Amino acid sequence: MKCIIILSILILPVIVYAEDEMSQADQLSSIVAFLQGEIQKTVTKDDKEYEIFIKQKCTSDYLPLTDKISGTGFLVANGDLLYLVTAGHVAKGIKSKDIVTLKTTNDKPISFELKEFLQRDNLDWAFSEKADVAVLRLNPSNKVQPHLGEHFLEMQMLEDKLESVSRDEPILTIGFPLGLGIQEYFSPISKESKASSGLIVLDRFDNQKKATFILLDSPSVGGFSGAPVFKIPSLISRGNKITISNKIVCIGLIHGTISDETGGKFAAVVPAYFIRELIQGNGGR
Q: Are residues 210 and 179 in the same domain?
């Protein structure tokens, strides 16, 4: 592995204070990244998967038929080690030449090919065997480094226990549903919800394997996949007592929407415990 030189500006975390004039969502928006690329369309016939090509008119040339894909990722610092985190099903569709968009000065978006964050062409994502999570160890190029100040969430802000979340506390999701928020201005969409379940085991929508989730009381939206989900400071009334919660914690990332034919829908959150486990175990390799 190449020697990695990390500038001090790269490891400044996003630290959110309750008394700060900026809203928590505004401060946390600097850690998220919009991921976009293309994936070749396929069709399954007789239990075999085939890639789809189209023939150009009046020529013998065939071109791959592709779909645009997008999702949300976020940046995490574990000491001097830097990572891009997203949902596993998003990472599987992202290539080294695909585009990552970040926040820069004056809320303007800036975009780079993913390989500029790596200084290599191969994407050695680490995938969790237990959850829909992927992490990628970063080695930013000189072209990217000046734009990464205060873009990383400290590892300690990830929930370190596999446990349920209070159903009374507000939960904040920040990402790019429907590709919104990366046009003229960098303005990720924030969505407030509450937990509607404790830990619950369900089939993943991408591979139908059993996995552990926390459900939110509202559905997700396409493009939120991989987005970080936070428990935010709040006043909580319990009977005659008011509890003050003043600590921001990332409780996980968005997997997708759980729904049925009756129209019932819940956002499924992958607990942050699995993100920490992956980074501490074999993240980035």
A: yes
Domain that holds residue 146: 8-38+68-155
What's residue 237's pLDDT? 58
Domain boundary among 136, 155, 174: 155
Supply the pTM of this predicted model.
0.82
197-213: per-residue pLDDT in tens?
Answer: 999 999 998 889 999 99
83, 183, 67, 161: which is closest to 126 by C-alpha?
83
Number of structural domains, the chain? 2
CA distances 106 to 97, 110, 126, 145, Å, are 26, 11, 34, 18
- Nearest alpha-carbon partner for 215 in 229, 233, 235, 226: 229
- The C-alpha R_g of the chain, in whole angstroms, comes to 20
Mean pLDDT value across the chain: 84
Chain centroid to Cα 115, Å, comes to 18
